[in-house]
Amino acid sequence: MFESIGRDVRTVLRGLLKARAFAIVTILTLAVAIGANTAIFSVVDGVLLRPLPYPDPDGIVTVAARTLPQAGGNGEAPFSDRGFWHFVKNNRSFKYFGGYSEGIEWPLTGIGQPIQADIATMTVSAFDVLGVHPLRGRLPTAAEDVPNGPKLALVSEDLWKSVFGGDPAMVGRTIELNGAPWQVIGIMPHGYNFPSPETDIWIPFQLNPASPNFGGHHIDGIARLAPGATIASAQKDAESLIARFSEVGYTPQWFKGVFSGKADVRTLKEQLVGSSRRPLLILLGTMGFVLLIACSNVANLFLVRAEARSRETAVRLALGSGRRRLVQLVLTESVLLGLIGGAAGLALAYVGIKMLILAAPASIPRLGDIGIHGSVLAFTAAVSVIAGLLFGLLPALRTTSPQVVASLRGGAGSNLLGRHGRRARNVLVAAQVALALVLFVGSALMVRSFRELRAVNPGFRSDGLLTFRISPAPIRYNNDPVAVERFYEQLLGKLRALPGVKGAGAINTLPLTPGGATLTTQIDEFPPATGDFPPIFLVRRATPGYFETMGIPIVEGRAFTSDDSDRRLGSLIISKSIKDKYWPHTSALGKRMTTAGAPARVVGVVGDVHHTGLDTPAEMFVYKPMLDSVNGGVLRMTLVVRTDVAPLSLLPNIRTVVHSLDPNLPITDIKPMDVVVGDSLSRTSFTMTLLALAAAIALFLGAIGIYGVISYGVVQRTGEIGVRQALGAEPSAVRGLILRDGLVVAGIGIVLGLVTATLMGRFIASLLYGVSPYDVVTLAGGSVVFLLVAALASAIPARRAARIPPVVALRAG
Fold first, then answer.
1. DSSP secondary structure, 140-154, as one string
2. H-type helices in 132-263, by residue range?
3. Is 396 in the same domain as 509?
4. In this structure, are strands 592-595 and 598-606 parallel, antiparallel, or unpaired?
5. What's the whole-number mean pLDDT along residues 21-25?
6. N or C terminus: fewer CB in 10 A for the chain?
C-alpha cells in the first residue's frame, strides 16, 4: 500500500509541475481558506478549549446567588460577610470554599515613578481552591488571614521583573502600597491570571467570621468540588443554603426584591469565557463556510482538469487500471494539494493570529493563551486532509463512473464527461453562491446592527473629552473624607485653569465602564408595602462640574455645587427615568429619599445615561455629592476634562497639576471618551469586521466560481454557438444565452442561500441590535448584490462568445 501511495505521489508531483497554473491557483485558494480557519480556531482553542493553568481545573467553580430583574446588576450577587461564612460552614459539596474581590487600585510608591497597582484580595481557602504555589516564597497562612492581621503581599512575576528588576531578595522586602508598608511573602508565577490578567498584587482578605454585615455584598465565591460532587449537586446544595439565608439575618423582603432563590454554580472557565462563546463559535462556523466555498471552487478546477485529461483516463483504463486505482490517484493529488495549501495557510495564520490579538477587544478573555499550539497544528492538518478529500472525491467519482468509463472505451467519453461535469460544476457553483449569500447577509446584519448602536445617544457628549483615573492613598489624608474632598476640589480648580480646558469634573464610576454600586433607596413619598423591598438604583458620587463637563443635560433644578459637600446639604440628583416613573406629572424637586443611610432631598434631575452598554436601556441613577450628611469616603475617582484642543495634548499639563498636589499619585486609564465609547462597542465591531472579511472572501470566490463555469461552458459550446450564428443568431442573442446560463445558476444559489440564511437567523440574533435576523431589506439587498455579481461574472465570457467568428466556431464544433 505504501509503495502504491509513494508511486502515486511521484506521479502527481510530476503532473503538477507540468500544470503549474492549476497548482498555484489551487494552493493559493486553499491557503487563504485554511489560514482563515486556522487563525479563528486558534482563538477558539485559546479561549474556549485549552484548560486553565490550575490543577484539575474542571473541579474549580464559581458560586453566586441569582438575583431578580428589579435588583439590577448582571443577575448575580456576590456574598456578604455573613452569607459567605454561612456557605463556608454549612456546604456539603465543596472541598474548599473561598472568597475574593478584585478591581482595587492602590498606588505603589517608593519605587521612583509611582504606579497604580491592581490588587486582588483572597482568602487562604481561595488560594487552596486554585492550588497554585508561588514561584518564590509562600502563601499566607490561616493565622495571618484574620482581621487586623499582618500586611502581607504576593506580587506577580511580571511586576517583580518589570518594576523591581527581578530582585532575588524580593521575598521579605517591604513595599509601600496605598501609603502603608506591606511585606512581600511570595512571587506568583507568570500565567497566574486570577482573578484577571491585570492583577499585580494579591493580599489576604482577612474577613471577620463575627461580622454583622449581611447587606453589603462584596465577596465573590470560588470553590473546589468535593470528591463525587457534580455541578448539579453543588447547585442544589447552594440553593438550599440560600433558602436558609434567614439564619444569618436576611429578612423575607430580600426574596421579594433581590434574591430569586436560585444559585449559579459554573466552572471557572465558563465564568471567564462568559458571553464570548457564541460570537467565537459563530466566527468559526463562518470560516467553515469559507472553506466549503473554497473546496467547491477547487472541485470545479478538478472537474475541468479531469475533462482535459479524459484521453489519459482512457489510456489508463485500456492498460487495465481499475476504478479504485483511478480514484486513489485523484484523491492522492487532491490530498497532497490540500496539505500544501494547509502548510501555506499555516504561515498566513501565524500573521493573522498576531493581527487578531492586536485587534481583539479586551473583553475577550485569555488572549495570552492564543497561539499555534499542538492542537492548532492538528486542526490544520485535519482540515487540510478533509478539504483534500472533499474537493477531490466528486471529481474522482465522476471521472471514473461506469457510464463514463464505458463511453471512454467507446470513444465518446469526452462529450459525456463534459455533460456530467457541466451539471456537477453548476451544482457546486450554486452551492458556493448559497453559502456566500448566507455570509453576506450575516455580515450586512452585523454592519446594520453596529450602525444602530453607533446611533444610540449615550446620554452625554463624548467629543473633546479626556478621562483618567486616580486613587489617593487614604493614609496620606489621615483617612479623612473631608481632606480627600478638598484635594479633589483643588485639583479640579487647577485643571479648569489650564489653557484649552473648558470644564472639569469627577465621578466614582464612569459610564460604559464596569463597576459601581447598586443600592436600595427609600422614597419617603412611596414607602414600600409591608414585606416589600425598596427600589434599587445605581448610585454614583459626582463633583460639581461633572454634568456640565460630560454634556449631560439638566432637565430640572440644578447640578451640584461646592455647598452640597461643604454644608452637608443632603442633596441628591436623580436621572430622568426615576422622575418619569415616580413623578411623571409633577416636579421631583424637594422630594426626600434615603440612600446608603443618608437622608437627602432631590435638587436636580438630569438626562438618562447608558452605563452597562448602548445595547441595553439607560439605567436609573441616583447621584450623591462626595460628602453627604454622613460624610462619604470616596477615594478612587475618574476625572473628565472637556477641551477645545486635542484631548491627549493636555496630558503633560494634567500630570504636572496632579503631581503638584500629590507627587506619589499615579494617573491611570487615560482615554478620550470617544475611545471609552468605542471600547464598549469593541466586541460588536470585532465580530462585524471578521464577518465582513469572510463575506468579502466568499463573494470573491463565488464570483470566480461563476466566471470559471461560464467561461469553460463557452469553450465547450463553441460549436453550438457557431451553428446558431450560421443560422442567423445575432451577437446579442449569443450574449443573452450565456448570461442566462450564469444567472440561472446564480438564481438557484440565491434561493438556497435565502432559505439557509432564514433558517440560521436565530444563531446570530443574540449578536444583533435594532435589526431582525430576518430583515427583508437585508435579504433582498443581498440577493440583488449577488445577481449583479453573477451578471458581471457572466458578462465577460458572454462578450467573448459573441465575438467568436462563425467559421472558427463551426470548425471547433
1. PPTTTSSTT---EEE
2. 157-162, 231-243, 254-257
3. no
4. antiparallel
5. 83
6. N
